[in-house]
Amino acid sequence: MDQRYATSPDQLPHFDTAALRDRFLVQDLFIPGEVRVAYTHHDRIVLGGAVPAGAPLPLPVFEELRAEYFLAHREMGIVNVGGSGTVTADGEVHTLPNGACLYLGRGTRDVVFADAPDGDEGGAQFYLFSAPAHTAYPSQLVLKGQGTARELGDQLTSNRRSLNQYIHENGIKSCQIVMGVTELHPGSMWNTMPAHTHDRRTECYLYFDVPQDARVIHLMGRPDETRHLVVADRQAVISPSWSLHSGVGTAAYSFVWAMAGENQSFDDMDAVPVTILK
Ligand SMILES: O=C(O)C(=O)C[C@H](O)C(=O)CO
Ligand SMILES: [Zn+2]
């Protein structure tokens, strides 16, 4: 398990490109036949990828969790960013077409990822986001576009996008996780601009559907001391509570955003006016 210890904003000015990427960029999560995870000590989030590649793939328990099974003390949100697949949780089979989001509650013991038997659009690729949980909420599935939709931005500022909230206060219930997907409209490149911070939650973005020859320039850091990460398809960024998070693509793209921390209030954000960015 890839471990990322927590970082103070005072350290940021001293990091070079390699150190920034080591701390905040998570690469190589989607490896055929593997469940790959990274553990950030910011709000003790585990993010990962599971790619069945033609054979059932169980969710292992990682030694670092010191738990009997992965979800013994945790909950998990899963978004399928690949072809149709299934997640079998304690014997119940959930079918996730591309873009579907499944919540698994604390105490779910056996989890197995697989490609859908009739999947014809390439194999399933499951993005995993897990946080500590104090109680067990029921597992629940929501299909792409069936969450709470918000239309954001404007074509004139190249940031027109559709945001879908799946796991949130008025949707699938969870202890900590708030999760959804944002899709940029063709011709729009900016996400989350104007940017924001939320000192009460850590947030991770998984960028996907980024064309192979394109990149997303992801901004992070304190508003008056920003840095950037150049991000490729299916790579994730960890944004500590003190960091803004915004990106501009060289082509349109989508991303899974997911948070955990002190509250689940999506609109509890401190907006950062563009004019104060440095
Ligand atoms: O398109 C956006 O704007 C987002 O998706 C923003 C994220 O949802 C976010 O940062 C929530 O705190
Ligand atoms: Zn945010």
From TrEMBL:
Zn(2+) binds at H196, H198, E203, H245. Pathway: Glycan metabolism; pectin degradation; 2-dehydro-3-deoxy-D-gluconate from pectin: step 4/5. Pfam families: KduI (PF04962). Its cofactor is Zn(2+). Gene3D superfamilies: Jelly Rolls (2.60.120.10), pectin degrading enzyme 5-keto 4- deoxyuronate isomerase, domain 1 (2.60.120.520). CDD domains: cupin_KduI_C, cupin_KduI_N. Keywords: Isomerase, Metal-binding, Zinc. It is an enzyme of class 5 (isomerase). Its EC number is 5.3.1.17. One of its GO terms (biological process) is pectin catabolic process. GO terms for molecular function: 4-deoxy-L-threo-5-hexosulose-uronate ketol-isomerase activity; zinc ion binding. SUPFAM superfamilies: RmlC-like cupins. The keyword Isomerase applies. Belongs to the KduI family. This is 4-deoxy-L-threo-5-hexosulose-uronate ketol-isomerase. It comes from Sinomonas atrocyanea.
